C-alpha cells in the first residue's frame, strides 16, 4: 500500500497509487472529516487507507456493522457541516437503499460523497450489478472515473459539487479502476478548521410532497452544472463520421480499440465522466454532427438507454445507435453481461465499421485456451490451508450423514460461500445476500404444518452476523422457527482483509473498543447456544448431531481464529506424513487426505505412492492428522 504517496504533503508531486488509494487521497485533499464503510471488494482499501492515516489528518474512520449504519453516520457528520465519505462494496448500496432514498430527498449540508464499487464480471462478488440504476431511481448524481487519476480528482471535486447541490454525490468505480495502479499528480492537502454545528434550529426531514419537488429541482440543476464539467471531454476528428460515447474505463478501451483498428481518424470519442444526470446539452451538441453513435459502458446499457431516450425527444430518427440493446457491443457472454476490454470492443467496433479484426496472432480466447490446455494445471477455489471452515464443513457433513434425514444447509456471504463447491463438500444449497441464510432458515423452519420434516441448518460468519443476521434471529425466536444456526466465528472479517467488527477488541483506527460478544446478543434474544472448537472434529460432529435432534431455534458457535491471522508472527506446528505408516493406495481410503478432505497442503506424491504435506503451504492446524484412518499424519508442536 502506497501510504507515503497518499500522505505526501507537497502538491504537484507525481506518485503511483492504486485506484482505491487515489480515492482516499482525493478525500483527504477535499478535507474529509468522517469516513465509514463495511469491508468488501472492490473498495475495501479506501477505508483501510484512511483508517491508517486518520490520526495524522484528524479524521474519524469507522468499519461499521453494515452499509446502512455507515451511511447514517456519514450523513450525521454532513448534517453537522463536516465533509464526509461513505464507501460501499459491490451490492453495498442495496443494504442502504432505504436511507439513501430518504437522504436524497432531505439533502445534506457538508459535502457528502458515496463511493460505490461495482464488480463487472463478478471477480470477487456473487453477482455483477450496475448500481447506476439504483442511483437514478434515488435521484443521486453519479460521477464515473475512467482512470486512477480521475478517481482521485472526481472524489475531490465531488465534495464541492455535493455542497453546491446540497445533495450526496456518487463516485461509481469498477473493479478495474479500484485495483489498477497509475501515476497521479497530487493536489494540495486541505486541513480545514471545521467544527460540527447542529442546533435546535436545524431541520433535515423527509416529509411532504414539496420536498420531492425540491429534489427534482436539485437534479435539474445538477444536469446544468455537469454540462461544463471538465470530466466530460471529446477526442477525435473535428468532423467525425461517427461518435463513441464511453464511460468509466471503457473510455480507455475505446481509445485503444480505435487505435488497433486504425479508425481514429474517422471516429470521435465523447467521454462521459458525469453519467447521471446526463449532460444533455453537451450530448445533443455532439450527436447533431454524426449519423451514428456507438456506446461503450459496463455493465448494463445505462447511458445507452438514457441517451436514446434523450435523442428520441430531441433528434427523432436522425441518429442510428449501436450498443448492447442492438447486440452490436457485446462480450463473449452476450450484451449486458461481463466486462468489456480493448479486444472485445475492437471486435465490436470492427463489426460495426466493417473492419476485420483479429486480436494478435490468436483468433479467439478459446484457441488460446486450447493451446494451453495440457500445460495449465487445474486450480479451483479453495479454503486456505488450515482454514477452520474446512473442519466445520466436514463436521456438518458428517453429522448430517449420521442423522440420515436429508437435512438441508443454507448459506451466506463470506469465505464460507465456497461451501457451495467441492472445497465445502457441496453442502450449501442457497447463497443470496448477507444475512439471507438465516431469514430463509426462519421461513423453512416454519413449514412443518405443511408436512416439511427435514432438519434445517444455516451457516453464517461472524462479521455477517453483526452485519445482517440479528433481525432474522429475533424474528426466528419470536416465531419459534425450527432450525439450527451455525456461526462460523473466525474472529475477523477474513474474506476482505481481516478488518475488525464489534466482536473484536479494537476499531478501524486501532483504538480500544467496547466489544459486543455475540453470546450476549444471542442470550438477549433468548436462544440457547453452544460454543465449540471446529478443529476438534469428533466433538464437533457429536455436538451438531445432538443439536439436529432438538427443536426450536438454536445456535452453535464454531469458534477458531482465521489461520492466516493466528499464525502471523508465530512458530507454526509442523505437520508431516510418516511414510512408514502411510500405505498409500493400499489403505483403501481413496487418498482421503488429498482427494476428499482436500486441504491444499495435503498432496499426493506420485513417485513415492504416498501422501505428503506441502510444508510451504501448511499452516499447522493438524485437523488432517485427526482424520487419517492409518494415523500416518503426525503433528510436531512448535516451540
Fold blueprint:
Elements: H1 3-7, E1 14-18, H2 19-29, E2 34-37, H3 44-52, E3 60-63, H4 67-79, E4 84-88, H5 92-106, E5 112-118, H6 132-137, E6 142-143, H7 148-165, E7 169-174, H8 175-178, E8 181-185, H9 209-226, E9 233-235, E10 242-247, H10 250-261, E11 267-272, E12 274-276, H11 280-287, E13 292-296, H12 302-314, E14 320-322, H13 342-353, H14 365-372, H15 388-403, E15 408-410, H16 436-444, E16 456-461, H17 462-478, E17 484-489, H18 518-525, E18 529-532, H19 537-548, E19 554-559, H20 563-566, E20 574-577, H21 592-597, E21 602-605, E22 610-613, H22 623-627, E23 633-636
Parallel strand pairs: 2-3, 2-4, 4-5, 5-7, 6-7, 10-11, 10-13, 13-14, 15-16, 16-17, 17-19, 18-19
Antiparallel strand pairs: 1-8, 6-12, 9-11, 20-23, 21-22
Helix pairs in contact: 2-3, 2-7, 4-5, 10-13, 11-12, 15-19, 16-17, 17-18
